[in-house]
Write a structure and sequence with these properties.
The protein contains 12 helices and 20 strands. It has about 425 residues and is α/β, with parallel strands linked by helices. It has 2 domains: about 5-25 and about 285-410, Lyase, Ornithine Decarboxylase, Chain A, domain 1 (Beta Barrel); about 95-280, TIM Barrel. The strands form 3 sheets. Strands 3, 13, 14, 15, 16, 17, 18, 19 and 20 form a 9-stranded mixed beta sheet that branches. Helix 9 links the parallel strand 11 (about 230-235) and strand 12. It is elongated and about 70 Å long. The mean pLDDT is about 95. Bound molecules: ligand LLP. Ligand LLP binds near residues 53, 97, 235, 236 and 282. It is an enzyme of class 4 (lyase). Its EC number is 4.1.1.20.
Length: about 425
């Protein structure tokens, strides 16, 4: 076998069948992760819930898989919510986040009875209460709290630090105004709290610290307002393998430490342990995906660098240019050939920052060879754009060695569809 196999498929054959660039996802891998959530978290600890953070990768088919495996979903926009609705995802299993949910989005969520709305700032409660009253609906909310922790990850994907656009700041004043408001609402019921401290975290230290901060808050609101925290949502953020020094850990590495800490802290404060929610995104789908490109122009700057250009780049994967994210790549039709060259993989956009991988070691290549970039299942398709009016790639799902198209390749006419 001279070609790379992925999820039981010859990837070169898929590239020829569907053309490139092409996103490929392994359903078997996704299901394995979702079952790990069930077996190692939900079944091992009582009073727990898990939702998949759909911002990482969402299509109707993905929503169906998540629901079939019995996991809920976190959405952050009307578009994600609408996708879930169209996939007949049960609305009560949805948690709606966002630091600036619009009135239209809140109306859509409340009209359709989403399970929880995570309130990101105090005034948002007025909007929710007004809509709930108008529609005569009961809305269950959690407060997103910014615990004031700086996580060891790229600055742009830290979320729980003091100076963050997300969440209610943890100060005497903000907590008392939030609690006083919440406890006086008629159609809106506060059930507890939420935190999310950042993404692609390779250790559990800050999750543990955040639990300590949140249990202190639970104790405070019990003493001051008689409020019993029924739910605590601990966010996601679990890291995956991208390159040599970034590795995925088992779910239990994070969740066991969360559960041990919450039990310990609740005991010490004499609190009843609330229902614990987790919401991983990247960890579920990141390693389930790869992207296939065709190699085109090859330019050697003697003594300096060789640029190998591919037929995609920044529009299908903006992460290297946004976060300096590192990826591994392989020449999928030459996997047994000796890597002899160090090259730079350049995207095709009119943008110097459109470099997918710096200094990749590969065999000698020519126009028409295929490059596979690994671990592109999370925040690639979901963050893709039409920059330079480049159509988005198709998405193919592989299940037990069989491929099927789940998102069609965009055409130039798709790009023009809304032009008047
Ligand atoms: N829950 C909340 C409230 C979040 O804000 C996020 C991610 C998650 C869960 C899921 O985080 P995960 O388990 O996937 O780390 N575009 C960036 C990632 C942004 C994540 C923002 N929030 C990237 O490509 O790295």
């Amino acid at each position: 076998m001279k070609n790379l196999m992925f999820a039981g498929c010859d990837i070169v054959k898929l590239a020829e069948k569907y053309k490139t660039p092409l996103y490929i996802m392994s359903e078997d891998y996704i299901v394995e992760r979702l079952r790990e959530i069930k077996n190692d978290f939900l079944n091992r600890h009582e009073k727990t819930r898990a939702v998949y953070a759909s911002k990482a990768f969402l299509t109707k088919e993905m929503a169906r898989i998540v629901h079939r495996e019995g996991i809920g979903m976190d959405v952050v926009s009307g578009g994600e919510l609408y996708t879930a609705m169209k996939a007949e995802f049960p609305m009560e299993d949805i948690i709606f986040h966002g630091n600036n949910k619009t009135i239209d989005e809140l109306e859509l969520a409340i009209e359709n009875n989403v399970g929880r709305i995570v309130v990101d700032h105090i005034e948002e409660m007025d909007l929710i209460e007004e809509i709930a009253k108008e529609k005569n609906k009961k809305v269950y909310i959690l407060f997103r709290i910014s615990p004031g922790l700086e996580s060891d990850t790229h600055k742009y994907i830290q979320t729980g630090q003091v100076d963050s656009k997300f969440g209610i700041p943890l100060t005497e004043k903000t907590i008392s105004s939030a609690m006083e408001k919440a406890l006086n609402l008629e159609f809106t019921e506060l059930l507890g709290f939420h935190f999310h401290i950042g993404s692609q975290l390779s250790d559990n230290e800050n999750h543990i610290k955040a639990i300590d901060i949140m249990t202190k808050l639970m104790k405070k609101v019990k003493d001051e307002y008689g409020f019993i925290t029924k739910e605590l949502n601990t966010g996601g953020g679990y890291g995956i393998h991208y390159s040599e020094d970034e590795h995925r850990k088992p779910l239990s590495y994070y969740t066991d430490s969360i559960m041990i800490e919450i039990e310990k802290q609740c005991k010490s404060y004499d609190l009843e342990r609330p229902l614990i929610i987790i919401e991983p995104g990247r960890w579920v789908v990141g390693e389930a995906g790869m992207t296939i490109y065709s190699i085109g122009a090859i330019k050697e700057i003697p003594g300096i660098r060789t640029y190998i250009s591919i037929d995609g780049g920044m529009p299908d994967n903006p992460r290297p240019s946004l976060y300096e994210a590192k990826y591994e790549g392989v020449i999928i039709n030459k996997i047994h050939e000796e890597p002899t060259e160090i090259v730079t993989i350049a995207g095709k956009c009119c943008e110097s920052g459109d470099i997918l991988i710096w200094d990749l070691k590969i065999p000698k290549v020519e126009r028409g060879d295929f490059l596979g970039v690994l671990s592109t299942g999370a925040y690639n398709y979901s963050m893709s754009s039409n920059y330079n009016r480049i159509p988005r790639p198709a998405v193919v799902m592989i299940t037990e060695g069989k491929d099927r198209l789940i998102v069609k390749r965009e055409t130039y006419d798709d790009i023009l569809r809304n032009d008047l």
